Inverse folding.
């Protein structure tokens, strides 16, 4: 069970790392709200094409929880991605990486406050080690520059996005027992609908940038992989090992983002990238091993 969750989470974080790179590549080729809307319209088309028969069978379960699923899709899909894409136009990838890596901490805190779910010493140490690895990547190997980072509107927006997705992760425990096709179909529709006012605002303020060829390529990638495939993998992984253990893997996003930046954008591979990867993976292994033992005792 845990092994399946690990594979799903690794693939999820790889796709989310690609989403961050796509968001940066989108600047000047498609505006954040247009990208968010087109992305989820594409996801809706994909999900409804394969999911309508199953949704009809699950409708008696979906209908009483429709508002809840709608809010999940709005918070976890629309608002998070709209905030992240917008933040990338105001702040640096360094800042966004550090801020996104704080998500597991918020998940730990929320689980403790709401459900008194504790964490072991091994989980705390592992989480701290992986955070250092993320910071090492984000600061290009010089942790001293952390004190030089400036807080601006993009940073505050990304912190709000992190809080939203942490809340989404916690809230997944209350989703109804329905087929994944039904779950994703409803939440994708919710994401598409709630993104429309944001795109309308962008158009009304003359801030909209309609996609060129690169923009359409980014829409296609984000509609299939970060929007549908990765979300399915993440939901299933949370089901298998819980939000605390699954959330820790989010620290891999900036690592995969760096690797993809090297492969796609031609950035150089440095020794600190390798050191950071070892620290992040080591921290995840330590925290996950401790969390698995704690779960077995409980």
């Amino acid at each position: 069970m845990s092994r399946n969750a690990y594979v799903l989470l690794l693939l999820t974080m790889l796709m989310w790392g690609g989403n961050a790179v796509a968001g940066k590549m989108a600047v000047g080729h498609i505006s954040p709200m247009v990208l968010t809307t087109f992305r989820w319209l594409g996801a809706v088309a994909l999900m409804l094409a394969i999911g309508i028969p199953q949704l009809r069978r699950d409708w008696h379960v979906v209908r009483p929880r429709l508002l809840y699923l709608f809010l999940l899709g709005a918070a976890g899909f629309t608002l998070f991605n709209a905030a992240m894409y917008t933040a990338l136009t105001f702040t640096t990838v360094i800042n966004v990486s550090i801020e996104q890596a704080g998500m597991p901490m918020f998940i730990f805190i929320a689980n403790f406050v709401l459900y008194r779910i504790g964490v072991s010493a091994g989980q705390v140490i592992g989480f701290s080690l992986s955070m250092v690895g993320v910071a090492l990547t984000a600061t290009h190997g010089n942790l001293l520059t952390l004190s030089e980072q400036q807080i601006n509107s993009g940073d505050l927006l990304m912190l709000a996005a992190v809080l939203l997705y942490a809340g989404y992760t916690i809230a997944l425990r209350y989703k109804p027992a329905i087929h994944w096709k039904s779950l994703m179909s409803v939440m994708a529709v919710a994401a598409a609908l709630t993104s429309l006012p944001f795109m309308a605002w962008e158009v009304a303020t003359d801030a909209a940038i309609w996609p060129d060829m690169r923009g359409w390529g980014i829409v296609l990638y984000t509609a299939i992989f970060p929007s549908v495939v990765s979300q399915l993998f993440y939901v299933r992984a949370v089901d298998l090992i819980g939000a605390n253990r699954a959330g820790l893997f989010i620290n891999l996003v900036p690592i995969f983002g760096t690797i993809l930046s090297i492969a796609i954008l031609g950035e150089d591979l440095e020794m600190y990238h390798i050191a950071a990867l070892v620290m992040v993976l080591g921290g995840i292994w330590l925290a996950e091993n401790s969390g698995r033992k704690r779960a077995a005792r409980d």
Remarks:
- The CA atoms of residues 92 and 215 lie 20 Å apart.
- The two ends are 17 Å apart (CA to CA).
